[in-house]
Each structure stands twice: as structure tokens, then as C-alpha cells.
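Feature request, filed as a ticket because there's no other form

It would be nice if the structure record came with a short human-readable summary line next to the C-alpha cells. Right now we just get the raw output. Example of a typical job, pasted below so the devs can see what we mean:
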Amino acid sequence: MPRMLPYLLLLPATAFLCLFFLYPFGLVAIDSLSSDGAYSLDNFREMAGNWKFGTAFWNTMLLTAVVVPVQLAMALTMASIVSKLQRGRSAILYIFAIPLGISDLAAGLIWLSIFEQSGFLNSLLVGLGIVDQPILLLSYQNTWVIFAAIVLAEVWRATAIMMVILVAGMGLIPKEYGEAAEVFGATRWQRFRRVTLPMLRPSLQTALILRVILAFEVFAVVVALGGTQFPVLMSETYNWQFAMQERGVAAAYAMVILGVSVAFTILILQLLHVPKGARI
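Raw output as currently delivered:
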């Protein structure tokens, strides 16, 4: 019985994984490769032949390339501040983590109230006399404003996810290493770069993988701020599934998102390789 105990403890998690991940994944994979009752690549051809696919793909990549590095830099800074505090640490951590309690759509609507024509930003510009009348910022003529608004909303909403992981990782680093480096004359930046970052690698790996995957799945914030004017992979998946009733093409989009997520996960695992037995 003791030999079977670990497997029995893993059984509920394994059953949950099979029921809510592997089984749906199998259905989506079959739908993506099925057309008129036969297996083919027609769904992928239709997806790739649509003019929005390339735009949605590169918009998603651009968002990820901008948002994730900014969030990583901010999360490291915020985690360092929280870890150094002697008083009020819990309060500051709570304040930083408040956006985690807000849903994606709610975050998008908050930033929409700032950037829309009757929103806070236009009211401020008119009140300061910078413009004579409100400007339609979120229009197809100002795609860069839509992109900037989405980036700001995503950075504000999801940076705390990475920060919480990094705070936990910094808490596991023995203080003796930093103190020894300080004794040998290392500056604060040198201690951070030579001691903290290398020992924070397992947490960095986890935080980056989680955030990159979520960045590829961005949807509600984009729809709230950009609508159909800024297509991304997830919004196109939704449109093909519900607006155009093309389940097979929607499944093909889902498989592309999964493939890109897996590829970047492997890349992060290779770049931030954690030695066997490293502390987590």
C-alpha cells in the first residue's frame, strides 16, 4: 500500500488533466483535421488563405514582444522593492496585486473609458486647451493608439502575475549570498545581476512561460479596445467559431495558438535552463 500511495495521490490530478485538457484537445485536433467527414488540411488552408490570418498572427506576436519584456522589467523592479521592505510589505504587495482581481474584460472597459471619445483622456486634453474638441482616438485611422491602449491595459492588468511569482522566488534566495557579495565589494547592481538573477532563474522560467502563453491568448482586452480593428489570433478563433460558424477553421486557429505556445515554452526552457536539483 505505501508503494501505491504516490500514484493514488496523483490519480485525481491525472483524471482532471485527462478530462479537461487531453480529451478537449483531442476533439479540437480532430475538428481541425476534418472536412466533410474526411481528414484533410482544408481548414488550415482556408485559415492561411484568409487575409486576416497574417495580420492577426503578427499583431499577436507584436503584442507579446512588447508587453512581456515591459512586464518582466516592471515585475522585477516591483518584486525587488517588495522584498527589500521591512515595514508595510504586505500592504504594498496587496496594492500591487489589486489588478489581479479584475477580469480581462473589466480591465479593457476601464481603459476604454479613458481612451474613448467622451473619456477621461479627451476630457483632460480639452480642459487643458490642448485640443478644441474630443478626438476619436480608437479608430481605424489610429491603429497605433489602439495598440498603445492595449499594451497599457495588459501591462497594468497582468504584471502582478509575474511579480507574485518573482517575490516568492526572491524569498527563497538565502540572504548570505548577497551579504557575502557585499563584503567582497559588489555594488547593488552587481549583486542583483550576479547573485539574484541567476538564483531567480526557476521563478523567471515559470513567470515567463505563464505570461507568454497568456499573451498569445489575449482576447477580451483587445475586443474591448480594438474590436475588429485590431485582430489577434484568439479573436479570429472566436469569430470563426461563433460569427461564421466554421468550427473546423476555428479549431485550426486553436491549434496554431497551441503550437506557438509550445514552441515558445520550449525556447524559454532552453534559454533559462534550470540545473537539476536547483531550488524552486
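Something like this underneath would help us a lot:
DSSP finds 13 helices and two strands in the chain.
Strands lie at 34-35, 38-39.
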